[in-house]
């Protein structure tokens, strides 16, 4: 077909969650800045009654120490189960261990590249590779700026394999009043992709005052 990019036809679509699949998500934390996204994600998943299986890279240990007062144990305690990064015998290393999918938050460019090119050198990237091969949902909260062509190509490769690249990009239409508001909204948008509703404000919500803003704008245009 003229103008058709043949590569589009090769893009994998994750299969829907099986109704019988356990309510369980793998959470990977890598060494990009923004470990607060990981802690909030784990807290919200616990509130939502979703079992979490956590794996943290050594570099994420550095960002945790730089960016928070949490100990490694504090971070691990936010999950139901946590695994050492080198434990390739862990359940999440196998596709036979059923999950709804995996979220890597935040996702460094190094972990992104390993996942994009199927290099499974540690438990985080192995678990992500398993998620892709099982056609489950894989979300990468990739964090870097500005982006090089290498980063962008890796993002395309992951997307073609069925992964979702979801950088932490704040929205301002909710009129955030704090960093917490911004983090909560970003985590909520991630979890939307797993059909988990955290109750965070949405575009069109009366409660968020957004409908009134829209009406005012439309009134001005008329
Ligand atoms: C405080 C701090 C912040 C960092 N922020 C980023 C970042 O935003 N994105 C990124 O790709 N790497 C970042 N890095 C570098 C990664 O930690 C480094 O590339 C590491 O090898 C990633 O390994 P991992 O993917 O196994 O966690 C940061 C490092 C430190 C110490």
Written description of the protein model:
With 222 residues, this protein is of the alpha/beta class. It has one domain (19-221): Rossmann fold (3-Layer(aba) Sandwich), CATH 3.40.50. It is 39% helix and 14% strand. The protein has 8 helices and 6 strands, in the order βαβααββααβαβαα. A 6-stranded parallel beta sheet has the order 3-2-1-4-5-6, sandwiched between helices. Strand 1 (24-29), helix 1 (35-47) and strand 2 form a beta-alpha-beta unit. Helix 1 (35-47) crosses helix 7, helix 4 (109-116) crosses helix 5 and helix 4 (109-116) packs across helix 6. The chain is globular, with a radius of gyration of 18 Å. The site of flavin mononucleotide has 16 residues, from helix 2 and helix 4.
Secondary structure topology:
Blueprint: E1 24-29, H1 35-47, E2 51-56, H2 58-67, H3 72-77, E3 81-83, E4 101-107, H4 109-116, H5 123-133, E5 137-142, H6 149-160, E6 164-165, H7 179-192, H8 210-221
Parallel strand pairs: 1-2, 1-4, 2-3, 4-5, 5-6
Helix pairs in contact: 1-7, 4-5, 4-6
The structure holds flavin mononucleotide.
Residues 30-33, 57, 59-60, 62-63, 66, 108-111, 143-144 line the site of flavin mononucleotide.
């Amino acid at each position: 077909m003229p103008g058709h990019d043949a590569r589009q036809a090769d893009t994998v679509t994750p299969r829907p969650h099986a109704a019988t699949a356990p309510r369980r998500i793998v959470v990977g934390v890598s060494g990009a800045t923004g470990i607060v996204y990981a802690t909030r994600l784990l807290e919200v998943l616990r509130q939502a009654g979703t079992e979490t299986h956590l794996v943290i890279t050594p570099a994420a240990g550095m960002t945790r120490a730089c960016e928070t007062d949490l100990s490694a144990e504090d971070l691990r305690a936010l999950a139901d189960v946590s695994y050492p990064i080198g434990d390739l015998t862990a359940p999440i290393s196998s596709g036979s261990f059923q999950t709804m999918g995996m979220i890597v938050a935040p996702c460094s460019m190094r972990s992104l590249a390993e996942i994009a090119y199927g290099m499974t050198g540690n438990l985080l990237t192995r678990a992500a590779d398993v998620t892709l091969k099982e056609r489950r949902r894989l979300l990468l909260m990739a964090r870097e700026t500005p982006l090089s062509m290498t980063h962008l190509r890796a993002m395309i490769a992951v997307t073609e394999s069925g992964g979702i690249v979801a950088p932490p990009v704040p929205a301002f239409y909710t009129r955030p009043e704090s960093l917490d508001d911004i983090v909560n909204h970003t985590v909520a948008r991630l979890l939307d992709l797993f059909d988990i509703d955290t109750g965070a404000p949405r575009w069109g919500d009366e409660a968020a005052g957004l409908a009134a803003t829209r009406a005012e704008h439309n009134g001005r245009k008329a």
